[in-house]
Amino acid sequence: MARKKVVKHAVSSEERKRADELKNVGEYIDFPCLAVRQGNLNIIALSVRANILWSIVDINKRDPDKDQGYQRALSGSRVEAIARYLSKGNPLPTSMVVSFDGAELLSENRVRIPNRSDAGWVIDGQHRLAGAHRANSSIELPIVAFLNLPLESQIEQFVTINREAKGVPTSLYYDLLKHLPKEKSESEQARERAADLGTQLRLDENSAFAGKIVILGSPRKGELSLNNFVRKISPLVHPAKGKLALYTAMEQKKILDNFYNGLSHAFPSDYDRNDSIFFQTLGFGALFNAFPTIFDLALKHFKGFTVEEIVQILKKIDYFDFEQWRQLGTGNAAETEAGNNLRQELLDSYTEGSMEGGGSIRL
Fold first, then answer.
1. pLDDT tens by residue, 145-184
2. Is the whole-model pTM more than 0.90?
3. Are 264 and 217 in contact (CB under 8 A)?
């Protein structure tokens, strides 16, 4: 029987590239690279097609309800803009920064990367990658990659690259502090403790702050950013000079929660408003400017800081008009003036005397 004639066709470079990629499908994928050593880190430069990179790395946006991951949320508008840009045949010449886990440097010009969906984490360039994916683009992306970088170091790189970048919430930086290397200044320790307290209060469904502290994005009416929370609470928990430095983390959490629960009972009409001044930058700042005075008054007169005792302190000035704060504008000067107004009103309602905080407390 006559053999069927096979007609061969010319193989394009694109087809050859796809064939090479298919050969790599398996437990690992090998890529040509240029390897360098910086300190104790292995860093490689390589190019990877967007569709392949998308399949082996996570754009691990920060989930505000889980203590894992470290990427900020993607901006849909930026992703769409990049997709449109690529659809017109435009280039993306700047390098992305990735960390590959379980990777093996076979030689100075060859790297082997696990062929799985979480083989790497995007440290910088997540919008470019997502835009290429949205555009269904197979564009070659230039990559600078760390190999087997520990999680703490990945986060440190993320913070270093993105700390001042537009669109990176300062709140996220504070939320990441607990994962950074352990040698921190007292101010960093205070911010870390404040961020932890904010997270605990936000996740506690019985807290006055439940669901009201925002890690990602801008706070809506009735919400506070973690950035704002840390800004006012970190001085109070500073290990050397904070008003609440002598108390445990659990006691600090209870003190803050009791304070706002006391406000809700003493001034319910102001507290329950959708646009409550207590959950705006000015009001929150002013209240915590006055907090040390309220705390000391409670310790002096009641030896404790329970919700009931806070209400008794605040009921002395139940006539106080918080609406006047809305006319003060914004910024530190406005917060200082508002806080001083509240503080002075409270002091005028009590006989002044020695007021010292610290030590055991009834909560």
1. 999 988 878 887 887 777 656 556 677 777 777 777 667 8
2. no
3. no
